[in-house]
Design brief:
With 338 residues, this protein is an alpha/beta fold.
Length: 338
């Protein structure tokens, strides 16, 4: 099959493009496939294995383009393959955000970045674009084909049965200078985009009740972040916690905050209000730590720990050596000041 012909699927229907790394899929890959209607082209390294893991795909094609991805060259190789595709959807992952503008330029199409919805109507593309940290949605409409990046956690990827996976060939890389990725560094859980985190620890009013002293509240969130970093997890919070100033609003999980879809979510003192759970997506595993065994968060959890969230966090910090580490830092700062 040549790079310029993909009979039976390309012409006239949306297609997702996903960049795999050693067979691993980026955050939001399944959602991008679902938004495209179940058709996907997987490129990168370990493409075949990644394509088979996309349970939302009815039709999946893959091409192993190697670990040293050059996005400018890759966009030029993909352009003839996707020439008849009216809407190309990429997850708004780091690789997706790198490839999307180059692909849009190679195809001569507009780019609809950070969309929470993208639809091909047969003549035009309609989308809703997220701006100002998901606090503002802007409707957008373009006549003709377009490229869009989809925000992870904005929709559900429903598994389909009997998906087909096939290999496709791309044309040779163009002979010209291009940016080359030398190394991919793992993100710091404490600072990475919450929507892309695979593990998340959430802070609710049961961990830092309203009226808690500002310094004490921030110290509790700092301890949660340290424990999370030791577990390879990012930290988020409910609106009560962010409104109190104990955590930044970019860490707020919910329908008016950040939408997440992690593999693991551990809720410390989170009651489970609908505004919060509406932003959780479909976590594979949920653990609730709460004194109320009947709260909604515990009811939806795979594991419910009926205990004080602050006490459990302190014990986790002790067992992971985080408490001693924090105490040593404080002692070091006091010695330096003295």
């Amino acid at each position: 099959m040549s790079a310029a012909a993909l009979p039976g699927w390309a012409a006239g229907r949306p297609v997702a493009v996903v960049v795999a790394r050693d067979g691993g899929l980026p955050a939001g890959a399944g959602e991008a496939v679902a938004e495209a209607g179940g058709a996907v082209l997987v490129v990168g390294s370990g493409g075949e294995r990644a394509a088979k893991e996309l349970t939302a795909a009815e039709l999946a094609w893959w091409c192993d383009t190697g670990t040293a991805v050059r996005f400018g060259a890759l966009a030029e190789r993909l352009a003839p393959v996707l020439a008849d595709v009216p809407l190309v959807v990429l997850p708004a992952s780091p690789d997706g955000r790198d490839l999307a503008p180059r692909l849009a330029a190679a195809l001569g199409r507009p780019l609809l970045a950070q969309a929470v919805r993208a639809e091909w109507t047969g003549e035009r593309v309609r989308a809703d674009l997220s701006r100002l940290d998901d606090r503002l949605l802007i409707p957008a409409e373009v006549a003709g084909p377009a490229v869009a990046t989809l925000v992870p956690g904005c929709r559900t990827a429903v598994p389909v049965a009997g998906g087909r996976v096939s290999r496709v060939e791309l044309g040779p890389p163009p002979e010209r200078p291009d940016v080359e990725v030398i190394e991919v560094l793992e993100p710091d859980p404490e600072t990475m985009d919450l929507a892309e985190a695979r593990r998340v620890l959430g802070a609710g009013a049961g961990l830092v009740p309203p009226g808690t002293d500002d310094a004490a509240g921030r110290a509790t969130l700092d301890l949660l972040a340290r424990v999370g970093a030791r577990l390879g997890a990012s930290t988020g919070a409910t609106r009560v916690v962010t409104d109190a100033g104990y955590a930044g609003h970019e860490r707020q999980i919910g329908t008016t905050g950040v939408a997440i879809d992690p593999d693991l979510y551990i809720a410390f003192g989170v009651s489970g209000a609908s505004q919060h759970t509406g932003g959780l997506g479909s976590p594979r595993h949920v653990v609730s730590v709460n004194t109320d065994p009947h709260c909604p968060m515990t009811a939806m959890a795979d594991l419910g720990l009926v205990t004080d969230a602050r006490a459990l966090l302190a014990e986790l910090a002790r067992r992971l050596g985080v408490a001693e580490e924090a105490a040593e830092e404080v002692a070091g700062r006091e010695a330096a000041d003295g």
